[in-house]
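[SOLVED] Need 3D model of a three-part complex

Original post:
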Amino acid sequence: MSPTKLEPAVALAELQESKPDRVTIVVLSGDFDRVMAAFIIATGAAAMGMQVTMFFTFWGLNVIRREGATSGAKDLLRRMFGLLNKGGAGRLPLSRFHFFGLGTGMMKKVMSRNRMPGIAELRETARDLGVQFIACTTTMGMMGVTKDTLIEGVDQLAGVSTYLAEARQGNVNLFI
Amino acid sequence: MSPTKLEPAVALAELQESKPDRVTIVVLSGDFDRVMAAFIIATGAAAMGMQVTMFFTFWGLNVIRREGATSGAKDLLRRMFGLLNKGGAGRLPLSRFHFFGLGTGMMKKVMSRNRMPGIAELRETARDLGVQFIACTTTMGMMGVTKDTLIEGVDQLAGVSTYLAEARQGNVNLFI
Amino acid sequence: MSPTKLEPAVALAELQESKPDRVTIVVLSGDFDRVMAAFIIATGAAAMGMQVTMFFTFWGLNVIRREGATSGAKDLLRRMFGLLNKGGAGRLPLSRFHFFGLGTGMMKKVMSRNRMPGIAELRETARDLGVQFIACTTTMGMMGVTKDTLIEGVDQLAGVSTYLAEARQGNVNLFI
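Solution:
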């Protein structure tokens, strides 16, 4: 190629190369199956060299809370909410067929029998692959979730504008 | 830059400048928490200068129905459906922990105690910031929702092709 | 345009023309309303000339299972799971107001009265319009879903990396 012209095909290739290959995932759901899917996509994308950000909000915050952590909230209402919404990735229900835990329990048995990683393992893998974890400060305030009840390795506590600053640079932007 | 050549970096910059920074959100869910998240993202993006379109369909139509509006449908089946699906953003349940309204009531108390805006306020803010509201005509027909039962300020009644025409121009396209 | 120069506006036009106009939809949900929405978007996009891929995972696998097909799994746990998750697009519940099938039944009556296509018809239309169907191998293994219990016309059995390879080339990437 001479430096004085630029073929469209080349322009396109350059652009595709320079375009940041980003994935953002808003994890609002606290359902076992949806959270599993979020982590499978996140770890898959990170393994393919894409830059991945997970933004945990509402029930999704449970996924990055320490096992058994209760709310640090002082007032009664938020403390009740914190209890309902008791922490730990090991306690998420299925979005369907919960049957007082039977559905989730069954799926976990099937997964372990088939040697599939659980949510805690996938979360660890995500961390190792450099997936960014952001905890939503708006929901933290609302549900009375304090920083010290979160797992180690949460990269940022931030609000919606931080999420959007990432999402506008990517094209695989999922809401789960 | 000479007019006879174009550096890839320049092409990229031009392109990024001219690319419309759009957000589209399909609001199918009528769950309080998911709808809250939709409005928080929509208002956040609009405040950052992005062009935002919300497409309300299925249960999401409730979010833009007038408080207490019942179905305008003539036939019994659709009227029953309209009752089940009774209008108004003040009546949305949580996706989890509904407990006959206890969960939603508790979350609303916590939000008002923490001076957080509710859905009606966020919807108003979205309107003020120029977020486009589109009501899905397919679902309106199915659920017997008529134009006069919707809130003022809905920009368009339209179908999926109008949504897709917006979405294909953007990159932050969420389904909630 | 002379072959020795390329105006930014032209570069942009070229790029927009050459950019593949892709839609990917992860269908995790098995809820009647969400699946309906997935197919309405998929068929709408394909009709507009966009390239559409649907990736069926978890409960979404039911949508592409043959009517009445039970799990081919050998072990008890997965067979139980297969039963809970009994196949066929005709059996999906609504995400809200299920009422032991009343809600879904009512919506189907309203749809047929208004001459709206059901999920099986939309799925057929999607196939005719060239929408790609991918069944998630990870979930198939977990739920004991075998290839022979799926409908004809599933294009690929594949994992998350195949999904991501499509999604990273598109900009309308939805998770339903």
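Edit: The helical segments of chain A are 8-18, 32-47, 76-84, 102-113, 119-128, 137-143, 160-167.
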